[in-house]
Amino acid sequence: MKRHGKISMSARAVCSVSMILVLSACLACKKEVPVEREPNDSFADATPVMIESFIQGALSTRDDVDVYRLEIHSQSVIDIELAPVRGVNHAFKVWKGHETPVLMKYVDDMRKSSPERLSNLSVDAGVYYISVVFGERDIPVAVPDGIYRLEIRSRPWYDEEREPNDTPADASELLLDRELMGFFNPAYNRLNQQGENQLREEDWYRIDVELSMERPVLLDIDLSGVERVNSVIELYNSGMERIGLADSGGVHEGESIREIGITASGVYYIMVASKNFEANHEKEYRIKVRSREFDAGMEMEPNDDNARANPITANEITGRIFPTGDKDVFIYHGDGRGLYRVEMTPPDSLDLALEIASSDGTNIFEADNGGSGFKEVLPAVNLKGSFYVTVLSRKPVSDPDKTYALAVRQLTGPDEYEAEPNDRKEQATPLKQQTIKGFTSKRKDRDYFLLDYGKRVKKNFIVRGIPDGELRVSITDPLGYTIRTEEIKGARTIKLIEMIDQKGFIIIDALKENYDEPYILQVMEAK
Amino acid sequence: MSYRAMSIRTALASLIIGMFVSCGTGPLLPEEGRYRQPENYNFKFIGYDANITNPENDRRSYYRVFIDKIEVGRTTIGLESQDKYFEAKIQPNRHLLVVEKWVLDEKSEKYVKLNNIHQPRPNFIYFGLPEKRIVVVTLKNDALQGRASFEIDYEHE
Fold first, then answer.
1. pTM surpassing 0.80?
2. DSSP label at B55?
3. What was the ipTM of the complex prediction?
4. Most buried of A363, A387, A484, B35, CB within 10 angstroms?
5. What residues have CB less than 8 Å from A245, skipping those under 6 apart?
6. Do B66 and B75 meet the contact criterion of CB atoms below 8 Å apart?
7. CATH class of A306-412
């Protein structure tokens, strides 16, 4: 923590005195205005100031510092405002303590001719110092008649952050289900000199979560929007590992984090910041954290990657895509090889996609066939052991309220169905029985079936189409070159008689998909 | 003419005819046992192209076979220069055979029917199919001349 030593006296004290004389002369003819008492360049020489009052002063030389002493008699929140001085980039620092004052805040927006303000400094009874200095960004220039006005107001503390709460160590306590108020101010924290977000003014909160019977809970965090501010929320566990992030809203908009799963009792930290270094001293933000019991049928954030996948235990689970960029990963613990129907019904507001990866993380299937509200289905996918299912949006959209439903169901009689993936002839599903069902699993899906008889045979192919769908059925030579093609509209049935020269393929192409209903292929001896 | 002279003339004529006949290479009509008897099929079509001099032009192909204007199947698949077969069992009768040539378009990965001007010409023949015979109809298409010719035979043992 930076500590202040004695502030050196300027060599140009004469100039300072003359400026103060001029200032005093100007003010003398009017109503009496409190002014600094030079020399006040050190804590020892600090000019006393009062709450609910103002004082005027001037930075009369390039290295001038004006120190003010403030006595606080009870816990409160003070609002310190340093009025602008034309052509001057000034700043102020707030110090706490009498004997060895500790620097609490360094307020500097790094602009000329602009005011500086800290509207919600939380103070206890004691001595504080405010030092007015030149800002660091510009070369200090003492301007004639450069008089500033330093005003200090106070209000009682009531359900708001305790500024400074700029680090986890200084985090303000936040109670579950209780709203707290805070301010995006000042614009910069000049004491934040480390990490990726230097100079960012951050408000840290801590929540103590006590799990009943160690049963997991879900946390929802809501942060209201504030004019001009583009905010961000981050959630950390006690090991300071980030477990939640919300940065989907723009300027003026709030942020929310949904369904963060808490599986261990302990202290959790929330960081709130203005991403665009904008401050708003007038309008507060409001933050609230709600908790609710975890239900195995609901996702538990964070589950954005395979390592943190939520298990699907009851064949169906719901979740939210929120904030924008969120993706939810689930794991299904299958037993051996099986055929599964995976179905995801999004809310009307979202266009969501579905991906399936094997236990080693390799993506093997995906469904992204429709727009907003379109149910994505992988009707019959052949999977082995455990596998991952990911729900995501490929567009920058989210919905904090509405949920999607994900269902995973193992199909009985897997031999009755095609085995996806069979999009290429090398992956063709062998036709071992007379009848097989297949699905148009994706847009322009192609299914290959292998015919292998070891001799030249004449076969009768009967294909029943899909309601509201269109298929193209092709029969090929042993090399996979198409010999015969026929199209089917709707649930009509077609018959084809074709010679198979020992080996061949049937190809079913989806011209118009129906992801729910299967087509049926029958192959029989032809007379 | 005396009876004796008549007898001598008849004996000489019989001798000459007998000698004539005994010097022939075979019987004038097909004999039982020389031809394969029908079992699974009694009609066979073979098609091939002759005079293909550039392998680049020797495409994978097959013929679709129509008998009495009904499609009954297709031949095996092979290069145009190779024999491609089709076998069927049909009723003994006089029949009309029409064939249609299809070749592989490698670009589209499918067989396409040759344009009419490139189809074998003629692409039909009438043939009789007797009992206990396998009729083999062979189409030889001359790639250079653009002319086709049919041969009809019975399948031998």
1. no
2. G
3. 0.77
4. A387
5. A232, A233, A234, A235, A257, A323
6. no
7. mainly beta
